[in-house]
Specification:
The chain is α/β, with parallel strands linked by helices. Helices cover about 20% and strands about 30% of the residues. The strands form eight sheets. An eight-stranded parallel barrel has the order 2-13-16-17-18-19-20-21, surrounded by four helices. It has a six-stranded antiparallel sheet with strand order 25-29-30-35-32-33, covered by helices on one side. Strands 3-6-11-8-9 form a five-stranded antiparallel sheet, with no helix packed on it. The structure holds alpha-L-arabinofuranose.
Length: about 675
């Protein structure tokens, strides 16, 4: 009798489960492929992403190009109106004594055309020096070797001087605390002559050295006298020990995101504020000592030490492939070139592609790449023409795009070409039926707008061009985004993943922010750091979860009675968002669920079209008590994914924690 009662209750419960808040996973209909390129990375020089971030060269303004230019470069493009202007002094050099050390910038006699400036320094006595601030310090750790170089010469007579000044005969180069009282590592250089000579330096910290960013690079005169310097560089150890390489912790964090590609070099950084400051890739290759650098649109100078080859190496070192944006004749000031005038840029783009994939023996630019140390071509399938050309009010993009498209396809028919404006905007009288492989869409939204649009791609035209969501973010939290943003991001990722037959590629922006005062131009970024440490925002962890728990087939999901939430303006959206994929080989199902509200949600999950289901599934959760909770440089792991198990079967119930993102791996 009791058994019958229990069975009746169970049947009723099952019947209830079948009705309310249910997701039915149609594993029997999981035929559509998940795009193999779905999750990638986007990058640009903003917020001190490379200089003062990923790039391991630690000395700002190494060739004194910014000396005596206290106002620095101007910001331009389409700046974030809420972001502070960069407040850092661009010269970044100090004197140990502003009376007894005198400096003069020499613009006549640099080491080469790319680096025409140098610094003449007069020291009234031994022990005085000039000091590099670094990018808010230097990363001092135990047993670390920093390698670098300095160009030195004895200065010539200046203007009316009858004789050259007495030269200093040796210099001490040291990493010390800002007050100069503690020395972490030091070396000496000597043997100067009237001509420029490059001195390699190596600074090694002791095995007992504690971590600190309270450090400066001192160049100290061992005697009274004068000396001329330029290209002072110091490199921290790099990921995979690459020469002129990239920061280890940041590369590891990106690799954890399992990116399929890296979109570079921007963003606004591709276009530049004006033609002179576009990303001119030919100026970014070869010996870093021979790269002139340029002004980034975000208010500071780039040395271009992180140039084209370094971008390519970065893409493959984190496990992806490059997606290169080529300069397309339009700059942020609104100037553009069209018709015959754009042809040199088309040639530059063809040369750039040849540098990336050309054969080292038989092509000019492939041979240059080999000269630069990389004989093997890089993988390349996608090329983007410009950036955000929907801002080009002249209407020149359709024609510019067509010219680039035809020239690139003629030489490289295998490449997929990305337009930065939508199909309808491309359509013009001149180009009634534009041919375009992918459209790059950008979405910067708040969390509510992400929820509102979390089914946007479900109804996209499947016969049109594919979508590359090349910049997107939920912009809540600063400098890095908070849990509310991660919830918006996750809702948006469910949309892209469920529809990855049409939205084949996506990447978040911006990727990086140096969190030191004055370093940020764009609030709401994915990964924050100072010179010593780095951390991921909740949005970062949401992306790690989405890309790590991903199958290769889209599982159609039927949703019944999902809970709603009220948004602002009395608008309504789902409170719960979902996506499911399956691995065709292993049979594992990955179900991702987002609960965007502050109350727990009960869901019934039904698996259609499966045989046996293991009773325990791996459960990974990212959650927080308050949506504004976040991670920071001082509290880097406040919100990180937590693993547990979930009881599952062909039909099971799950409780989603308030403000949570859940990934289930069902076997
Ligand atoms: O990612 C920040 C900026 O946003 C990019 O430089 C630009 O493409 C977009 O407007």
């Amino acid at each position: 009798m009791r058994k019958l009662f229990v069975m009746t209750v169970m049947l009723c419960a099952n019947a209830l489960m079948l009705q309310a808040q249910q997701l039915t996973l149609r594993l029997d209909k999981a035929d559509t492929e998940v795009s193999p390129m779905l999750y990638g990375l986007m990058t640009e020089e903003i917020n001190y992403s490379y200089e003062g971030g990923l790039y391991t060269q630690l000395v700002p303004n190494p060739a004194f190009a910014d000396m005596f230019n206290p106002r620095g470069g101007r910001r331009g493009g389409r700046p974030d109106p809420n972001a502070p202007r960069p407040t850092v002094r661009p010269d970044r050099w100090q004197l140990t004594d502003t009376v007894r050390v005198r400096v003069r910038q020499n613009r006549q006699a640099g080491i080469n055309d790319a680096n025409p400036t140098s610094l003449v320094v007069n020291f009234e006595q031994a022990g005085l020096g000039i000091v590099s601030e670094g990018y808010w310090g230097f990363p001092i750790r135990k047993s670390t070797t920093f390698k670098g170089a300095i160009y030195v010469k004895q200065p010539a007579a200046f203007n009316n001087e009858s004789a050259a000044p007495t030269p200093v005969s040796s210099l001490t180069i040291a990493l010390k605390s800002a007050d100069g009282n503690t020395t972490y590592a030091e070396t000496k250089v000597s043997g100067f002559s009237k001509d420029w000579k490059k001195f390699d330096i190596q600074l090694t910290t002791s095995a007992t050295q504690a971590d600190t960013k309270d450090a400066r690079l001192f160049i100290i005169a061992d005697q009274a006298g004068s000396i001329e310097l330029t290209r002072v560089t110091l490199y921290a150890p790099s990921f995979k020990d690459r020469k002129n390489g990239l920061r280890i912790d940041l590369m590891e964090m990106m690799a954890e995101m399992r990116p399929k590609f890296l979109r570079f070099p921007g963003g606004n950084y591709l276009e530049g504020n004006n033609f002179a400051n576009r990303f001119d890739w030919k100026q970014t290759i070869g010996d870093p000592d021979e790269r002139p650098g340029h002004q980034s649109p975000w208010g500071y100078r780039s040395t271009d030490g992180l140039g084209l080859l370094e971008f390519l190496q970065w893409a493959v070192d984190v496990g992806g492939e490059p997606v290169v944006g080529v300069f397309a004749g339009y700059v942020l000031s609104g100037d553009h070139l069209d018709g015959d005038y754009v042809k040199p840029f088309i040639q530059d783009a063809l040369d750039e592609i040849e540098y990336i994939i050309g054969d080292a023996q038989t092509t000019k630019w492939g041979a240059v790449r080999a000269r630069d140390g990389h004989p093997e071509p890089f993988p390349l399938h996608y090329v983007e023409i410009g950036n955000e050309d929907f801002f080009d009010r002249s209407g020149s993009y359709p024609n510019r795009f067509k010219m680039f498209y035809e020239a690139i396809k003629a030489r490289y028919p295998q490449l997929q070409i990305i337009s930065t404006v939508g199909y309808n905007a491309l359509k013009s009288k001149a180009i009634p039926n534009p041919v375009v492989d992918l459209i790059d869409e950008h979405y910067y939204r708040n969390a509510f707008d992400m929820y509102r649009n979390a089914f946007q791609y479900d109804s996209y035209d499947r016969t049109g061009p594919k979508i590359f969501c090349g910049e997107w973010a939920t912009r809540e939290g600063s400098p890095t985004t908070n849990m509310n943003a991660a919830l918006g991001d996750a809702a948006w990722m469910t949309c892209m993943e469920r529809n990855s037959d049409i939205c084949v590629m996506s990447c978040y922006a911006p990727l990086f922010v140096n969190v030191e005062p004055g370093a940020m131009q764009w609030a709401s970024d994915l990964i924050g750091y100072d010179v010593l440490n780095a951390y991921g925002s909740p949005s970062y962890w949401a992306q790690v979860m989405f890309s790590q728990y991903l199958g290769d087939r889209i599982v159609p999901v039927e949703a019944t009675d999902l809970p709603k939430q009220t948004l602002d303006r009395n608008d309504e959206a789902n409170a719960v968002f979902y996506t499911a994929t399956k691995d065709a080989k292993t049979g594992k199902t990955y179900l991702k669920l987002v609960n965007a509200v502050g109350t727990a949600q009960q869901l019934n999950i039904k698996l259609e079209g499966v045989g046996k289901v293991k009773s325990k599934a791996k459960k990974v959760e990212l959650k927080s008590a308050r949506p504004e909770d976040t991670n920071s440089i001082d509290n880097p792991r406040n919100i990180v994914p937590q693993e547990s198990t979930q009881k599952v079967g062909k039909q099971f119930a799950i409780t989603l924690a308030p403000y949570s993102i859940t990934a289930l791996v069902i076997e």
